[in-house]
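hiii so um. not sure if this is the right channel but i have a protein structure encoded as tokens and i wanna go backwards to a sequence. like what aa goes where. can anyone help
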């Protein structure tokens, strides 16, 4: 058990959409990505550290000998909860962040194995408790549909119906906590070929953004209706970056639409060329630090009241006999001591709130890409 504040990040996405790649891209080299920010994001347990290292290697190995293997990452076979700790560098207090990744085939009832019903129920409980809902959007499936069959297949590939249902019960749960920040993040991935700010030169950023808005309109609508206070943001991410789409072919695998993409390497091609990860991290950190700030402000107010009450008690005049009894029994000394401890606690929490004010200011000043980020 931990007495740190705890925030959950839930994922909503079917199989092969790019959930694990997105999560690991977000967590790898996080010190570098946090740039000059006075924040630290670290793995809170060994299992998380190992998982990030293993998936990072798999992702890096998808780019070998000048070729990109778009199926290099093995799909998840079980759920895994990343345990992270976010703390301001100058402060010892932090928050615990939990992020659950799971096999995408559990997400879609059409592909969910019979023996995974209980596992999926546990994932649903986790998501309902999350303050952030992260929705990776498979950009190739969204953009490369040119006829009625492909458009229908695209909806099925992206499991839009399921994403809408997930967003509805996530938002319904968030709707009961108006004072707590909530954030829906729609994140196109596999979108290297549509943005011209990395290695690709074709600019289809507006088209991609419009396509997401149209396809996910129902998701946004249900979040607006059930959690009007939730923020909604869009952030396009390249987790590979140095590839360009040559051709995409629609097929059916096991009765499910499938799109296979053929890429060519662009740029030096020796390593990934991430883009948008820092924007996504900034959006997430703004949310998490704001949530921590609001919670700490409440705690600081409670501690301030407790310290004032303890002080009043410590100096209260209880009359000649009362004061004498308090003094000889040692109770007056104990009250004074307790009052001092509570004052220190309250002051420490006020100081943490001030530190976070500064971090919030710095996060707000961080520029975000106008091509990749949008808010609703
Ligand atoms: N071109 C490109 N490929 C990507 C990107 N993100 C992921 N991929 C590829 O897509 C494949 C599937 O990605 P995963 O992250 O394993 O997908 P997932 O949603 O976790 O899949 P499950 O675990 O089966 O649910 C991987 O082999 C990645 O190489 C991206 O931004 N660009
Ligand atoms: Mg996965």
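sure thing!! here u go:
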């Amino acid at each position: 058990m931990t007495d740190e504040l705890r925030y959950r990040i839930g994922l909503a996405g079917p199989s092969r959409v790019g959930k694990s790649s997105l999560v690991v891209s977000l967590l790898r080299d996080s010190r570098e990505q946090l740039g000059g920010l006075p924040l630290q994001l670290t793995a809170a347990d060994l299992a998380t550290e190992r998982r990030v290292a293993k998936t990072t290697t798999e992702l890096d190995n998808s780019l070998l000998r000048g070729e990109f293997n778009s199926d290099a990452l093995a799909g998840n076979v079980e759920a895994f909860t990343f345990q992270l700790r976010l703390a301001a560098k100058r402060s010892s207090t932090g928050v615990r962040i939990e992020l659950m990744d799971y096999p995408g085939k559990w997400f879609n009832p059409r592909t969910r194995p019979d023996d995974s019903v209980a596992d999926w129920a546990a994932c649903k409980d986790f998501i309902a408790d999350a303050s952030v809902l992260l929705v990776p959007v498979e950009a190739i499936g969204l953009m490369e549909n040119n006829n009625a069959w492909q458009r229908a297949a695209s909806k099925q590939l992206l499991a839009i119906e399921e994403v809408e249902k997930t967003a509805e019960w996530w938002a319904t749960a968030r709707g009961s906590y108006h004072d707590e920040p909530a954030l829906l993040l729609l994140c196109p991935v596999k979108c290297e070929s549509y943005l011209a700010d990395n290695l690709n030169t074709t600019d289809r950023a507006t088209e991609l953004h419009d396509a997401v808005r149209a396809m996910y309109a129902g998701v946004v609508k249900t979040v607006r209706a059930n959690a009007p206070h939730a923020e909604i943001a869009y952030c396009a991410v390249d987790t590979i970056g140095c590839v360009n789409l040559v051709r995409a072919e629609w097929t059916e695998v096991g009765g499910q639409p499938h799109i296979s993409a053929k890429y060519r390497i662009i740029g030096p091609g020796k390593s990934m060329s991430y883009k948008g990860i820092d924007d996504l991290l900034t959006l997430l950190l703004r949310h998490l630090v704001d949530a921590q700030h609001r919670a700490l402000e409440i705690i600081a107010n409670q501690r301030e009241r407790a310290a004032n009450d303890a002080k009043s008690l410590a100096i209260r005049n209880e009359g000649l006999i009362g004061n004498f009894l308090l003094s000889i029994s040692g109770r007056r000394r104990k009250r004074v001591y307790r009052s001092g401890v509570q004052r220190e606690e309250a002051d420490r929490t006020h100081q943490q709130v001030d530190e976070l004010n500064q971090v919030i200011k710095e996060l707000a000043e961080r520029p975000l890409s106008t091509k990749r980020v949008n808010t609703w």
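oh and The pocket of guanosine-5'-triphosphate (ligand 1) is lined by residues 13, 15-21, 62, 70-73, 75-76, 103-104, 189-190, 192, 238-240, 243 (CB under 6 Å).
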